[in-house]
Structures are given as C-alpha cells and as structure tokens.
Design brief:
There is one protein chain. With 277 residues, the chain is mainly alpha-helical. 60% of the residues lie in helices and 0% in strands. It has twelve helices and no strands. The termini are far apart.
Length: 277
C-alpha cells in the first residue's frame, strides 16, 4: 500500500513538473514580495526614488527569470554540492580562478549565480554614476532577482528539482506553492540595509546560508506527504507548519540583502542625489 502511495505521489509530481517552466526557484509572488519589502530597508536619501518606482521594480523583478537566451539559464543558480562538501572551500570565489581550476564549461554548467550578482552590483553602481535613472530602475530590478535567487535553497544544489532525493517538484512546492497559499499570514520584517564590502564574496555567503537549510526542507517535505495520496490541502498545511519558519526567514533575509545591494551600489557610486520619481 505504501509503495502505491509513493508511486502515485511521484507520478503527480512528474506531471506538475512538466507543466512548469524550465527554470526553478522562487515563484513570481515570492520575488515580488521580496522586492517590495526591500524598498522599506533603504535609508532616507534613497527611499523617495525607490518608493516612486516600487511598482516598476515589483513588476520587472521577474523578467530575468525568463531568459530568452539558453545560456542565461545558468545565471540563476549554482550547484555548490558539485564541489565537495559544505562549505565547498574547493570552489574559488574569483571567477577566473574558478575557470582556471575547473574549466569554463564546468563553471558555466554548474551555475554562475554569485558571480552574476557581483556583475549586476557593478552595473548598478555604473548606472547610478551615469545618472541614467531608467537604467537604474531596470538594473535594480534585475539585481533584485538574482539576490532573491541566492536565498532559495534549491538554487544552490544539484538536487534542484528533487529528482536526486525522489521528491520531484519539492522546489516548486516550497518556493512557489507555500508562498502562494500562505503569504497573507507571513510576518516579513527585514532589517535595515547595510553596506556590503565585497558583493561577490557576500553572494557566496548568501548561497551557503540558503544551502544549509536544504536537508531540513527535504525532511519536512517527506514528513508532510506521509500517508497521503496527493499533494492536497492537508499536505500543504503540514509542510507550512514545519517549513514555514524557514521560508519566512529566507524571504525576510532576501529583502534585507536586496536593499543592501541597492544601497551599496549607490554608496560605491558616490551617493549621487536621486530624483523623486
């Protein structure tokens, strides 16, 4: 009987997985929540500009998660566990050093997320310096997408779709379905934005912190589906009761870090005066 139930769950997960986009990670509601809350973390000198553009940022944060170029799909994740065991010290944090050690194909295939965050942090700094406010808005939204992605544990592992642990679709259940079902009950309270000394190095730390929650989430998923024949309301109530605290923590931390990256780029640009629109 137990075997039939598990087989049914795997089949349902596979059907759901095939119906989803090819990329994994946060759903749109999670990314938009993170980005909106990030505006609230900013200092007074930055707040009016970002308040005026909150809707634009919330609308466009999901754009980078729908890449038009297949090569860009590698920007949203990094499979840390390909490089040994936690804290994955074998993987250099310098991009060219990592390529010299493992080869460009391996580094690109296993994901570029921390380096992409460092790249867009620099792009946002340059946009602030140029005073191109349309570019600032768009680059800030793209950077928010990648910083948010670093807080989703399933963007940090080879087990991104749950296939390796026999839990197909667990990433979508955690990162999208729990948010869609329970976000009205979330208490998301990010901290004030803080200066980031090294944007790329800090991006690796965000990914490591997210990765540390993986085993807990996978265990919570197994417990939630125990003795059930489908991923129904009871399953999600159980899963949220067990993994909800992790989910809310990651969303809150993501909001803090998005705001911190925005502020850091502005400070590194020399604190230019911002328009109020």
């Amino acid at each position: 009987m137990r075997r039939r139930l598990c087989s049914g769950l795997v089949l349902i997960s596979l059907i759901l997985l095939l119906a989803l986009p090819s990329s994994f990670g946060w759903g749109e509601n999670a990314e938009r929540l993170i980005t909106s809350k990030a505006v609230d973390t900013l200092p007074e000198e930055m707040r009016p500009f970002f308040e005026a553009n909150r809707q634009f940022l919330v609308q466009h944060v999901t754009d980078a998660g729908q890449p038009k170029n297949p090569a860009d799909e590698h920007n949203d994740y990094i499979e840390l566990d390909h490089f040994g065991s936690f804290p994955f010290a074998a993987l250099p944090r310098g991009y060219m050093t990592a390529i010299d050690k493992y080869g460009r194909h391996t580094i690109q295939t296993d994901g570029l997320l921390p380096w992409q965050i460092g790249l867009y942090s620099q792009k946002l700094t340059e946009a602030f310096q140029s005073g191109n406010w349309a570019d600032v808005r768009l680059t800030a939204a793209i950077l928010a997408h990648y910083v948010a992605s670093a807080h989703d544990p399933f963007n940090t592992t080879m087990n991104r779709d749950g296939k390796l642990s026999g839990q197909l679709g667990v990433n979508s259940r955690f990162s999208t379905s729990l948010v869609d079902r329970y976000q009205l009950f979330f208490f998301v309270k990010p901290n004030e934005a803080a200066l980031i000394r090294d944007p790329t190095d800090y991006a690796f730390e965000m990914c490591l912190s997210a990765h540390a929650w993986l085993d807990n989430i996978l265990l919570d998923d197994r417990r939630a589906e125990q003795d059930l024949s489908s991923y129904n309301g009871e399953y999600y109530d159980r899963f949220y009761a067990q993994a909800g605290a992790i989910l809310i923590r990651q969303i809150s931390d993501a909001s803090t870090d998005v705001g911190s990256y925005w502020m850091t780029a502005w400070i590194n640009a020399g604190r230019p005066p911002l328009p109020h629109q």
